[in-house]
Design brief:
Number of strands: 12
Order of helices and strands: EEEEEEEEHHEHHEEE
Shape: globular
Largest sheet: 6 strands, antiparallel, barrel
Oligomer: single chain
Structural class: mainly beta
Length: 236
């Protein structure tokens, strides 16, 4: 049996760095991504009928979370990084096999001039350039379990933070990006165990460095720096 995983596509998102990426798929519906296929999969036959589904499962690789040592327990950030759980009882990126699973909404199937399909999705929680190993349709009659228990993840489901984004700074960002940035910031990108007082954080999104502080439980945007380079191509 061939156990080598084939990269069938890569997703392009507005997250060039890990900091700020939503902790789970679907938490920030305004975040968009484009799935571009590779090699023989750049063929419309590979996605024939996919537009008949509203959501997809993506199986992908934690390309920036490699570890030489496999640990049986991990310390989830949502538990402050102090309580350990079994690796298979968490969604930690540090796994025996660095495979991630995300459920995203399929917004559009676009075809390039050469006929290559591009899948436009929303709610992605992935770094720009993340390799995708497989794409499967989401089937609500079997994949949705509203009665399911969610352990500590459910307990932190509503975690968030109030955001103050001054208009004079917000106007430096295109209007079609503003809602996504607000939603990402409202998730509080800081690690639960690393919330420093009097510290200026920086989150890079879509070619903008959003610098903020947190004062008395409120996230306040202090500065916007345009970091676009000639190579950067934002997701639309």
């Amino acid at each position: 049996m061939n156990e080598k995983l084939i990269v069938v596509a890569r997703i392009h998102t507005d997250f060039p760095e890990k900091f700020g990426i939503p902790r789970q798929s679907g938490l920030v519906p305004s975040v968009r991504g484009e799935i571009h296929f590779e090699g023989e999969f750049r063929n419309p036959d590979a996605v024939r009928g996919i537009e008949e589904y509203s959501h997809l499962w993506l199986l992908w690789g934690f390309s920036k979370a490699k570890k030489d040592v496999i640990n049986l327990t991990v310390a989830p950030p949502r538990l402050g990084g102090k309580e350990r759980k079994g690796v298979f009882a968490t969604r930690s990126p540090f796994r025996p096999n660095s495979i991630g699973l995300s459920s995203v909404r399929l917004e559009e199937v676009r075809y390039e001039r050469n006929g290559e399909p591009v899948l436009v999705v929303s709610g992605a929680d992935m770094l720009d350039g993340t390799p995708i190993y497989d794409i499967k349709p989401y089937l609500p009659y079997t994949d949705a379990h509203p009665e399911a228990k969610g352990s500590f993840g459910e307990a932190h489901r509503e975690d968030g933070i109030k955001v103050v984004f001054p208009e004079e700074l917000k106007c430096k960002i295109p209007k079609d990006l503003q809602q996504a940035i607000l939603e990402v910031l409202a998730q509080d990108p800081r690690a639960a165990y690393n919330k420093k007082p009097d510290y200026i954080y920086g989150m890079n999104y879509a070619g903008y460095d959003i610098r903020f502080v947190v004062e008395e439980g409120v996230l306040i945007v202090r500065e916007i720096v345009d970091t676009h380079s000639s190579e950067w191509k934002r997701v639309k």
